[in-house]
Specification:
By secondary structure, the protein is mainly alpha-helical. 74% of the residues lie in helices and 0% in strands.
């Protein structure tokens, strides 16, 4: 049934965002103000859940959980316009729902707007690099050995948390969801333009590089 792939995209995106937000809250609560320790906990949890959700749902939906991944596969003609639009809506809704539910289980205010600015040209270029690297990882590894995509994506994002100044969001759905939490992983709404534009540019550069290399 077609609906199964939409449910898979919802669940995967939900668990991804829930892990990013929840592990950030837990890391901040337990680290006694040590940002490096909190970020390390956030990194390990995110890398781990990426491996699990990709392995769990790749045969159902392709395990996108990320609008720029869905857009890439649309341009590669591997999904149609209807699926692209459904995936995008599902990914953004699942992300916001995950934030609200995580706030609930940590007994925080359900509706929040982040006050944490992540602005500037450095963030813009950081997201170009993060998104370029993520998309190339998916496309190149998939071409060589599809079974290694999950671990490769998990490892790239784990590394990206630490080698990019933006901590490698590389995902518009996650980016938008994080504007609705004023916790460790939050991002202020006015910062979104730097991230969205960097992510889209990174997407198209990756697609061009992939086609050139292949």
């Amino acid at each position: 049934m077609i609906i199964k792939k939409y449910i898979a995209e919802f669940l995967g995106t939900f668990f991804l965002v829930a892990t990013v937000i929840g592990s950030g809250i837990m890391g901040e609560n337990l680290s006694s103000g040590n940002v490096a320790v909190a970020l390390l906990g956030n990194t390990i949890a995110t890398g781990a859940i990426l491996y699990v959700i990709i392995k769990s749902f790749e045969d159902l939906s392709g395990a996108h959980f990320n609008p720029i991944v869905s857009i890439v596969f649309y341009f590669l003609k591997e999904i149609n316009l209807k699926d692209l639009l459904f995936y995008l809506v599902i990914q953004f809704i699942a992300g916001i729902f995950a934030v609200i539910l995580i706030h609930f289980i940590f007994e925080l205010s359900l509706l929040q707007i982040s006050s944490k600015p992540r602005m500037g040209i450095s963030m813009f270029f950081s997201e170009i690099i993060a998104s370029l690297g993520l998309i190339l990882t998916i496309l190149m590894v998939r071409k060589n050995n599809k079974s290694n995509v999950a671990i490769s994506v998990a490892l790239f994002i784990t590394a990206g948390y630490w080698f990019t100044s933006s901590t490698s969001f590389a995902n518009p759905a996650v980016t938008l969801a994080r504007t609705f939490t004023d916790t460790f992983t939050g991002i202020s709404p006015e910062s979104i333009i730097y991230f969205f534009s960097g992510q889209l540019i990174g997407l198209f550069i990756a697609l061009y590089v992939y086609k050139f290399l292949r």
